[in-house]
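A note from the maintainers: we've had questions about how concatenated examples are separated. There is no special marker in the raw files; a new sequence line simply starts the next protein. For clarity in this README we add a label.
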Amino acid sequence: MNKKAFLMAMITVIIWGSAFAAIRASLQGGYSSCHLVLFRYLIASFSFVLYALIPGVKFRLPAKQDWIRLLLLGWIGISTYHIGVTFGSQTISAGTAAMLIASSPIFTTIIAIFVLKERLERMGWIGLFIGFAGIAIITIGSNDTLTFSPGIIFVLVAALATSVFFVLQKPLFTRYKPIELTAYVTWAGTLPFLFFSPGLIEGIQHATLEANLSAIYVGIFPAGIAYVTWAIALSMGNASSVSTLLYIEPVFAIIVAWVWLQELPSTLSIVGGIVTVSGVLLVNFLGKKKTVGMTIDY
């Protein structure tokens, strides 16, 4: 991985790590999950429109044969993912959500086995088992009362969605610039959110200042800039090497949530997160006969 790819990936990890706390702050400040995902992606979409209109910027229209794939990318990687994370963050801590999202390489590996015909060594299968055991521990310890939280299901669906997103996204980097591809999938992913339009203005007016600033932040940075820096990193470096940096993302998420919201995941959830990441590392460094890259989005 070259230095620029490393720098772009690190910027992404730090910004995405802060997104979980920002989402929680917006939800606690008066936003509904529906209005938050719509508002942040209206901001992100408008930001890309402004960029495309800058004199001298050349934005190519996508080829007709790619329209369906771009729509699917947006609906899966943006719409499904962010609905899962945002709705899930209503009932679980920012750090717990980040650790569950860190499990997405496990789902990527399973998809790669069937779609890309990847083969795992024995250690790979052991790593998958350890990873799912970690997810189970996080689920059990998602709150201090050791009761199941429905937010877990939403975030796991988001983790699965981001895994599918990578498999569909990677081939398009050969035909589109990172910022073009990011803009197209952002616009496509924003369309389903328009269903949540009723009451948006009233929701913004009744939210606290902190909630509104947090929503603007996640619209510009995690939903916009970080997607571009991640796409640049993937286009310039080996995807599997770049993606290893995402294993430290929950650390940033936990630190930001602790400083900003005075919120920490339960001890059992932290243990589960360590077990899950250990399983992911085992799969990717000792368990594969053919390397497949991964990505996690916020």
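[label: protein 2]
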Amino acid sequence: MTGSLRRALPTAPDGSLPARHRAMQHASHRWVEVAGADVLVVDPDAEQPELRDAMAGHGVHLTWVSSTTDALVAYGRTEPRTVVVAVGTPGLAPVDFVTAIRRHGAPYVIASGDSLTDPAAGVLLVAGACAWLPRPYAAADLWDVLATSPYATEGHGRVVVGPLELDAAAYRVAFAGRRLPDLPLKEFELLRALMLRCPDVVSDADLLAALWGTDAGTHGTRTIAMHVTRLRTRLGGVAAVRRVRGRGYALTVED
């Protein structure tokens, strides 16, 4: 799990993550679902939570489906730039699936399986797969393949606006190279959401989704306003958050 959020966080004596850091990890998944690089994994085996967590630390969101039939739906819904396809996946033959998605775009296709000597692996590579990944998946192996793909994913865990830099994996905010005091989780999430759209206005609805995900309906604009007030104070003048009445909030970073 090199470079993952889990590696950057301290663990309890039993090896588990403290409650606050588990919340940070869940926040990481929400961020990448909204703004991260999306990788579609088409594999009949059960999803690997540790792989999902490690890639979230890199700003990469995994969508995992167990059949090529479901994968066609997921491909149309998420429009991923990278697709991992395991040989032997049920549904439409994997080679036909790869041929179909390449008719409707130019995704970076990665074939996967137990052995590269499997004849089915060669068929996928001929059909348009550009790389090979052994199963079961290791986060370091997947990251190495993604890092050399035409679609860079490295920057999704890190957001930079002028001299202001936010690193989601390290849970770090810096201004002109100087690390700022750690922000509480919700202010950190709020700042990242604003930086991702800077200098555009982020609507209240989008901020609610970024901060609370599926629980957004239990919170309102007053709660956002409270966190904005706190964030303004904690930023200490290095950046300003302005309210655009009826629309949302926008971030301005000092040069």
